[in-house]
Every structure is written in C-alpha cells, then in structure tokens.
Amino acid sequence: MLRQLIIGVGIILLLTPSSLAGTGEAKVGSPAPNFSLQDQYDQEFDLSKYRDTVVLLIYGDREGSEFNGEWLKAVNERYNQPGHAQVKLVLIANLEGVPGFVHGFVKKRFQGTTPQGNPKRSVLLDWEGVVAQLYGFQQGLSNVYLIDRHGLLRYMAAGRGAPQDLEPLFQAIDRVLSTR
Questions:
Q1: The CATH number of 2-178 is which of 3.40.50.1260, 3.40.50.720, 3.40.30.10, 3.40.50.1820?
Q2: Per-residue pLDDT for the chain (180 aa), expressed as one digit of tens each?
Q3: Is 47 exposed, middle or buried (0-12, 13-18, 19+ CB in 10 A)?
C-alpha cells in the first residue's frame, strides 16, 4: 500500500508543474522581497530578520534540487570556515506542485538525521511557490539569490553549480563582503 502511494505521488509530481516560470518582482540592486517560511522542523524563517547578514538563498524544485549541494559545498568551502561563517546559506524547496494530502509525508522525507547522527540541515518548505513568485524561477535548476547586509538583492542566477556557474557568484559575494 505504501509503495503504491509513493508511486502515485511520483506520477502526480511528474504531471504537475513544479512552478510558474517567470521573472518575479525582484531585480538586482533593489530591495530583496521579504518572505517567511517554515522548515521541516516547523522553525520559522523570516528574511527581514537577517539584515546585517549576507544571505544566499539556494532554491530548487524536485529536478533542480539535485544541484543544490554543488552550490552549498562550494560556498561553504570558500566563505564559511568553522567558527567564521561569512555567508548565511538558506536552502529552500519549491514544493508548490505537491498535493496537500501528501504534505505530511513529504515533510517527513526532509526530516531525520545524518549518518553522523545530527539532524538534517534545515530546508525551508515553499508549498505555495512564494519565492518563485517573488524572485522568479527557472525550473529544473538550482536558483541562487545573493542578498547583502542592507537587504538588497545583489546577484541572481540559475544553474547546476558547475565552475562556470560558481565563478560569477564568487565575484558577487567578494564584492558584497568587501563593502559595509
């Protein structure tokens, strides 16, 4: 029975668009649109509470999420040494195509522990596609949005986290970190 439910959910997800593609309202150099979402542990995240912090939103749908780790790893290695994090990394899952009756099941898939026994990293669950609507979104890829200490959107891109994707992001982060 559980296997049939999982297969049924998979078919629904394949047939349901994961997001409305679009440009959103956000523009580089303008204030980053605020949003509030909960993670898989019901912890609230409100972007406006992170002024004075450099924030990188890493946003993906089911297909694009496979590339999130590339962005996350590269930025962590370059900017977030133990005890000295320069960039707040925020993972967000676009789940707007997930039917309401399986939200609880999907949420539990994000919970759990790592092989080391630690809770899995926080992932904001965007059931309504709020971030896609506010920032624009390219399906099937990781979408990244860099917000400076003053709450301005400084960079946005979509890609797989390949070296040619990462270098422009690193340049933008370097510029943001060099200004107060």
A1: 3.40.30.10
A2: 434 433 333 433 333 343 334 456 799 999 999 999 999 999 999 999 999 999 999 999 999 999 999 999 999 999 998 888 999 999 999 999 999 999 999 999 999 888 898 889 999 999 999 999 999 999 999 999 999 999 999 999 999 999 999 999 999 999 999 987
A3: buried
